[in-house]
Specification:
single chain; eight-stranded mixed sheet
Length: 421
């Protein structure tokens, strides 16, 4: 292992865990991020990523092998650079400016024999068609000849204690056999198992396939849940029964929608590329988008009907939300359907309160009042809506709530009066 640094561009939910692991196995790491406040917190030993506890960050800082910086000059002479920057959608089209900025900034420090790896989720062809030319132009070097270039899709699942960065198989690729070997050698030192694939386009498609699979199947059960309710069918009971089949079925559960970067965004990258390159519509993705995007509205409609049955109006009511993060046991609110539900309730004239032990008060939307879960808060609310089923919630306190809409079926064993989605 050389003393040349490993550079991780982007110190968020993906990049920070990679940086921590690289230090732990002996690399000298430079963590780059354009967000100066993030860098300040990291230098102070304060983590904003739940999968990286403060004590782990401080141990890495104490080792002297980790530097957090906003200055690409600290990347000089790097051996390996991993790009883990955001790739949002704007008006349905990929916004790759962060990849472009990273590529231009790294190119000036690229030296013969170095390796550059893209992890950011994107459309098939990005590594070779976008990243490669920028690196070559800025460095005067040739990818595959002078330096190695590859793609390895991130598989970070925030809050998942069973499947971590280390024990989740890592898909790896390169633009040449030599690049693949370099990329695989780097990750072989970080994770338990690497999975090489034919090329970067296959690796890029792997990530999109994984998330499109989930997106479509969640949309299926979400739409089924809506119609099952209209038909008087207990969809959760049906899902439980179907889940006993030991083959040919994978369990998915309905909910208030999908969130995070992956499901609301990634499948649209594939849909966009199919439209751009082939002039065709990826119908499954478009249908899944329609269904999952509608779910927050459906939740508010169900709550309105539930309150109407009890002679109550949503306008002027106090609604207590349980959970605002997009997934259980995480403080990640990116694209959270729970936040959209809160916004719709606020727009309808309700006073919106929320309990989420994974969020700081400053992470709450301005139209939501953060509160602690107490018996008094529950009894004072006109209705309670369970949106994110964190484990750290005392759900028994909701047993005496006047009205409960449970979108996650968390109260099945603690409340006989909760209305399931």
């Amino acid at each position: 292992m050389t003393d040349a640094p490993v550079v991780i561009v982007g110190q968020g939910y993906v990049g920070l865990p990679v940086a921590m692991r690289a230090v732990q196995v002996g690399h000298r790491v430079v963590g780059l991020d354009t967000n100066a406040e993030r860098i300040r917190m990291l230098c102070d030993g304060t983590s904003y990523v739940e999968d990286v506890p403060d004590d782990e960050l401080r141990a890495v800082l104490a080792s002297g092998r980790y530097t957090a910086s906003t200055d690409y000059a600290d990347a000089a002479g790097f051996a390996t650079a991993v790009i883990t920057v955001p790739t949002p959608l704007h008006d349905g089209a990929p916004d790759l400016r962060y990849i472009e900025d990273a590529a231009r900034s790294l190119a000036g420090h690229l030296t013969p024999g170095a390796t550059v790896i893209l992890e950011s989720t994107t459309y098939p062809g990005t590594t070779e068609e976008l990243l490669r030319p920028l690196l070559e132009k800025g460095s005067g070097l040739h990818a595959g000849l002078d330096f190695h270039l590859g793609y390895s899709p991130e598989r970070i699942d925030p809050g998942n204690r069973e499947w971590t960065f280390v024990n989740t198989p890592k898909v790896v690729s390169g633009i040449t056999p030599e690049s693949l070997a370099a990329v695989q050698a780097f990750y072989d030192g970080l994770v338990q198992r690497t999975v090489p694939v034919r090329g970067t386009r296959e690796a890029e498609t792997t990530k999109l396939l994984e998330n499109t699979f989930r997106h479509v199947n969640i949309a299926l059960v979400n739409e089924l849940a809506m119609y099952a309710h209209m038909l008087g069918i207990d969809i959760w009971n049906a899902i439980d029964a179907a889940s006993t089949k030991p083959f040919g079925f994978m369990r998915f559960a309905p909910g208030p929608g999908v969130g995070g970067h992956c499901l609301p965004v990634d499948p649209s990258y594939l849909s966009w590329e199919v439209k751009r390159s082939l002039g065709r519509t990826f119908r499954f993705v478009e249908l899944a988008n329609d269904v999952n995007n509608y779910m927050p509205t459906y939740v508010v409609e169900r709550l309105t009907n539930l309150m109407n049955r009890h002679s109550q109006a949503l306008n002027g009511a106090t609604i207590l939300l349980i959970g605002l993060a997009y997934k259980r046991n995480s403080g990640d609110c990116r694209e959270s359907p729970a936040v959209r539900v809160a916004e719709l309730l606020h727009n309808a004239g309700a006073q919106v309160l929320a309990v989420d032990p994974h969020l700081r008060p400053d992470q709450m939307p301005p139209f939501v009042l953060p509160v602690s879960l107490t018996t008094d808060q529950v009894l004072a609310a006109d209705a309670v809506v369970v949106l994110t089923d964190h484990d750290g919630i005392d759900y028994e306190l909701l047993a005496d709530a006047p009205l409960v809409l449970d979108t996650r079926r968390r109260l099945a064993t603690t409340s006989s009066t909760a209305e399931p989605l």
